[in-house]
Amino acid sequence: MFSHRVIPALALLITTALASPTVDNSLGTNLNVSQLVSIAPKSSSCASDPFPSECRTAAQAIGPITASFVTYGVNTPGEQAAILSTMAFESDDFQYQINHFPGTPGQGTRNMQMPAYNLMYAQSIPALAPYLEKVQTSDAAAILGLLIRYTNYDFGSAAWFLTSQCDESVRSGLQSGSGAGFSAYMACIGTTETSDRGAYYQRAVTALGVTTS
């Protein structure tokens, strides 16, 4: 489903105005900026990012990430670690929100969802309904544009995917911190565990204090 460090820049012209969601940094999690930087080291700064308009630092990302955990009921460290590792890996430490390499039009958000899932995700957000009516469902770039324009939605897709597209057994496996649980999660998102994905996951479980087995 996902492809790491994807993307040619898309002309995402969404002219309709939406109020940006309010983010509360204190919602239901103990995640802090230093933990996020330990998982995604490049997120300490956007100073050298090749796509500065897409880059978000850990300090900018922590609010919408925390809000997504609350919105989708992801309240265990094991699940949070898996989601954080996937977002950090796919976006190269929150530097990208669009698939630039090799470039799949409409693929993006922080976990680099494929267009079909972006449409499903957008359709699940009531606030986007009036704007979705104004674009063709086949217009993958426009759908992605709606999602990445607003930080909560951009960072919320990974939690949405886990809770809406993966079996409960996948969530249970992640909650237990088992290696098999992470492998099942990789299968759910349409990939396999590689050494670099595993390194991100290990940093995440260490940062969040997840006991693995």
UniProtKB/TrEMBL annotation:
Swiss-Prot/TrEMBL keywords: Signal
Residues making up the signal peptide according to the UniProt record: 1-19
Protein name: Uncharacterized protein
Organism phylogeny: Eukaryota, Fungi, Dikarya, Ascomycota, Pezizomycotina
